[in-house]
Structures are given as structure tokens and as C-alpha cells.
Amino acid sequence: MSDVVDPSRTSQPTLDATRGPGAVPGGYSSPPSRRSRVGRLWAPLRMMLTLLRFLLRRSLWVIIRSGRGIWRHPTLTLVLVVAVFLAYQGYERFLAPQPAPADPAHYEIVQAIPPPLPVAEYLSAQKNFDADAMWNTYSEQAKAANLAQGSSLQTLRQTTQELQLQGLQYGESHYIGGYQIQPGGHAYYFYVTKVQDPRGNAAEIYQIFIADGDGKVLRVEQPQLTQSVH
Question: 73 pLDDT exceeds 80?
């Protein structure tokens, strides 16, 4: 009678179903192969190359399409280029630092001086077209200078009469201010005088009186009246 062999007592090794296919008996597993490590390192690089190739292809597609559009529609392309250029210029001006506001100009007001009596007498005589009284307000130096230039009392009378015949009427004169160059020296006096022509048109003219240290008139500048006479 043959002996019955007890399977539990046999010394043959058995496979553990819970172990992986790479496992070995005794609780030890084999290390990962070199190919698997290279594969894990190559995967991110391959994704980057794929993305780069996609971007390159899309860029080439955009360039080709843009070239075709420029070739087919040159006028529209020019308009777009000009619009982009103007937009860029506006953007640069927007980013450019704005200049600081300028400080208000510094000025000084000179000391007010009253007009001399001869100037007031000249304006009163002018309003009445009194050439003789106007001539009397001039200094002797001014009279001599006028005579040397061929301008006399008779010339002043003629000019005054021409203005009166034109229908010119003098109104009030407003004193603006005066300035004396140095104490006892020449001074300038500025006036604005209202005038009216025969048609009733009113206007304001300026007159500048230059007087000597005694207040006598040396010269009267009235270019607006001179133009009206000539």
C-alpha cells in the first residue's frame, strides 16, 4: 500500500496570489527597470514639445492668413495700420508725464501818480475842438520840435477842424495810470477816450501823453485818431 503524501508537509514553494508579477518569494520586489525611469522623465518634455509645435503651427497659420489678407485688401490693411499707429501714439501721450502747471507770473504794480493839470486841460480842449487851448498845454521844447518838423498851431487847427467836420464827437476820458521814469523826469499817462462817429457808432480809443518834469505835454500818441483823419 502506497504512502499518502500530506500536501501541508511538502517543501515545494507556492505562489502568493497577493504578490505582483514582479515579486519574488521571500518578501522582496525587483527594482524598476531603466526604461521605465526614462519614460517618466521624457513625458513632461514630450508635452512641452507638443505644445511648442502647436504654437508654432498656429503662428505660421496666422502669418500666412495675414499675408493673404494684406495681398487681397491693401487699402483696408493700410487703414488698420494707420489706426494702430494713431492708437499707439495716443497711448504714449497718455502715459507721458504731464507738465507741472506753471507758476503765475510775478508782477509788481507801480505806485499810482496823478495826471498833471496840462494833460487834463488838453483833454478838455480836445472835447471842445479847441486847438489853441490844446497848443498851449505843450511845453516850449515840444512847440519848437513841432515847428522844426513843419507842424505848427495852424496845422493843429486844421487837423482838429477835419475831425470836427467828419462828425466825430469826444466823450469822457478815463485815466488808466501813469509811470514816471525818474523823479523830476519824463512821465507817461495812459487814457481811454470814448468817441462816436456821425452814424452813432461808439468806440474807445487810447491816448498816451508824454510830459516833462513840469507836467507840460511833450507828445501825444493817438494812432487811432491819426488813421481816421487820413
Answer: no
User: 15-29, 32-46, 110-124 — which one is most confidently predicted on average?
Assistant: 110-124
Q: pTM of the predicted model, to two decimals?
A: 0.53
* Residue pLDDT, tens place only, 147-157: 999 999 999 99
Distance CA 44, CA 23 (A): 29
Q: Which tens digit of pLDDT belongs to each residue from 171-199?
A: 999 999 999 988 888 999 999 999 998 88
